[in-house]
Amino acid sequence: MAILPFLLLSVLSILQFVSSSPQVRVLSAEKRIDLTSPIVRVFLTLKVENTGASEASDILLAFPPTEAEHLAILKASTAEGKRKKKTYVPLSVGSVESADAPNGAQLHAVQLRSPLQSGETTTVEVLYVLTHCLEPFPAEISQSESQFVYYRDSATILSPYQIKEQTIYIKTSTNKVESFTKIDPTARSGSEIRYGPYHDRAPYSYSPVIVHFENNNPFVVVEELVREIEISHWGSIQIRDHYKLKHAGAQHKGVFSRLEYQFRQSFGASPSFKNLLARLPPRVHSVYYRDEIGNISSSHLRIDFQKSELEIEPRYPLFGGWKATFTIGYGLPLQDFLFESPDGQRYLNFSFGCPLLETTVDDLTVKVILPEGSRNPTAAVPFPVHQNLEMTYSYLDVVGRTTMVLRKTNVVPEHNIPFQVYYDFNPIFMLAEPLMLVSAVFLFFIACVAYIHMDLSIGKSS
Ligand SMILES: *[C@@H]1O[C@H](CO)[C@@H](O)[C@H](O)[C@H]1NC(C)=O
Ligand SMILES: *[C@@H]1O[C@H](CO)[C@@H](O)[C@H](O)[C@H]1NC(C)=O
Fold it and tell me: Which residue in 169, 194, 278, 452 has the fewest CB atoms around it within 10 Å?
């Protein structure tokens, strides 16, 4: 009985919502959920039809609050052109005020290229990435056990629109699926679970499902990454990446046996990891890898024309809940990343995000340290980030280096896209450091000359 007013309220709010937006119906929807890595990727294809009288300029997507808080990236596109010349055109997506959506659902609006006229249909492709959505269960495992995780979702797609036909496919990392909720029709073959097809579901239909499966991928989470990108107009860019890394999988319990570790390692079925792969730009030089104890010698660098791959090995293999702190540093040629814009400004064009493969970064700070004497820095980043300026001082600095600080939480590999930092620079400042060195040498020389010519003897001169 207590639930009744609540239900009534949510029905009312649905009605309100529907009446305030143009009539859109989803003809067919397909959702493919990729659970093969610790990062969850969802591909959604929606074929929508405008059944109202007025035109519709955007399509709304709904997320339950638990997903919304783990949403790292949301992109939409639409296919244009015929079969062979099909190209995908990106569409802009923005979050919208969703006070009237039931149960705290969060809405995002996909802006269509041209408004959808009454009776017209279009297809929208959506990709979104979720982090920290796989819950290890059991939460603690010993060294010899496999890691199993829970994934929670709905068998029907949460949507503010009525969906005529829909199917969900869930891909797990291995064939070992302990259990999954069945809502007919449901089928599993190997590592794929299918929910649906379901027909004519009302707006905001939600039927919770849970999938329990094996996922022995290394759950590498960088809790904090501070990247320092220091530009020197004398020909190089220095990068220093400070990592605080964690194995975010099931907690390790019991004692650690190296013998057993080596045995399981050779069979491949262990959620622990002992090495990490970082993808660095081509032409890197002076690579180092160290922690607070000192240089860690276990790293391998492979360089080719397109990229460099650095394989690093922390001092010990990492099990669930274990942490490692280290720094990777390297130099890059200036001309690969620093350019001049048509209006005479200089700009750095560099990749945002973390160079470690398949890694979530909870808190990323990118510091672009500009040369001394740089003015008016501005950053162009293709997604919202927090920006501020600070000063960095290093050897021989007089006024300090202007530093552009960019911060972003919940960063995934999809964020590894170029960003730019523009600034004004007067080349006269390039002379500042050599001039200081020259004048220091000159002063020293004068002092020597003065010393030689000074008569410091006490005795009477003849
Ligand atoms: C650190 O170790 C690497 C091997 O990975 C070696 O090439 C380098 O010379 C060492 N650096 C120092 C300062 O010891
Ligand atoms: C930045 O570099 C990427 C390739 O790494 C390139 O595609 C892009 O056009 C560059 N952006 C600017 C503004 O130069």
Answer: 452
